[in-house]
Amino acid sequence: MSEFDVLAISPKDADAPAKFAKSLRETGFAILKDHDMTPAEIDKMYDAWAGWFATDERFDFAVKPGTSDGYFGMKSENAKGSAHKDLKEFFHVYQNKEVPKSVEPVTRDFNEKLIKIGHMLLEWLDQETPQDVKDIMSEPMVNMVKGSDSNLLRILHYPPLPDDVEPGETRAAAHEDINLITLLVTGSEPGLQAQDVNGTWHDVPCQAGYITINSGDMLSQASKGYYPSTPHRVINPPKQENRSRYSMPLFMHPRPDVVLDHQTAGEFLDQRLKEIGLK
Ligand SMILES: O=C(O)CCC(=O)C(=O)O
Ligand SMILES: [Fe+2]
């Protein structure tokens, strides 16, 4: 399995916006380096949340019917069309929703900083997307998410695999994200893979300091397929590396009233949450 052969882009490059848009267009995927999220901030998040997932407090935060913030236990979510539930538990952080007190300061800081980086990347896309594609969009992409309550930071814990894993059960089955773009700081362990536009799977580099970005279904829909939505998955670890894995994707979501194509972002999200078992 080869690594995804995608050049890491630095915001210091004069042509960073063009490189970023080209990478998303051609591979559905991009890597950002030299950003201002430090390894120390990322480690602090992983330490804080590893501690939290080890407590029973998570059950007090169990997601309530009809809402999507809080704690989701093992086997809550399946990829669209998948027969199996994923081997993961996770917590959904929204800017205006409750976060456990013990992890709140570090999480709020991290979330805000990553959202800012997301704004910068969407501005790059607004700048670099061809005019005829922009013409079919209802508003600039960065405006779709500015002030949006729907941006979602998902803190994931994939526990060590139990002995009785059934064939076909994986940490995260192949799926595309629902939202516009996803920002993913490097996971605590490898395992993430992405599919290129030719259908070949690649390991996503698990290198400290990288933020990987993939485009989601809403971006594909809003751009009428100009930016492809990227299939990705998290494979099970080999036996000798059967440890917990943590990751923290930030899903940039438009305001619910934003018109994507024939549907609003709110309608689209509702439909997709039902398909993946979260609603
Ligand atoms: O854990 C990861 O690295 C990716 C998670 C993911 O793709 C998701 O939750 O949508
Ligand atoms: Fe995903």
TrEMBL record:
Keywords: Ethylene biosynthesis, Iron, Metal-binding, Oxidoreductase. Its EC number is 1.13.12.19, 1.14.20.7. Gene3D superfamilies: B-lactam Antibiotic, Isopenicillin N Synthase, Chain (2.60.120.330). GO terms for biological process: ethylene biosynthetic process. Pathway: Alkene biosynthesis; ethylene biosynthesis via 2-oxoglutarate. It catalyses: L-arginine + 2-oxoglutarate + O2 = guanidine + L-glutamate 5-semialdehyde + succinate + CO2; 2-oxoglutarate + O2 + 2 H(+) = ethene + 3 CO2 + H2O. GO terms for molecular function: 2-oxoglutarate oxygenase/decarboxylase (ethylene-forming) activity; metal ion binding. The keyword Oxidoreductase applies. Pfam families: 2OG-FeII_Oxy (PF03171), DIOX_N (PF14226). The keyword Metal-binding applies. Signal peptide: none annotated. Residues 149-254 form the Fe2OG dioxygenase domain. SUPFAM superfamilies: Clavaminate synthase-like. Its cofactor is Fe(2+). Belongs to the iron/ascorbate-dependent oxidoreductase family. This is 2-oxoglutarate-dependent ethylene/succinate-forming enzyme. It comes from Paramylibacter kogurei. The lineage of its organism: Bacteria, Pseudomonadati, Pseudomonadota, Alphaproteobacteria, Rhodobacterales.
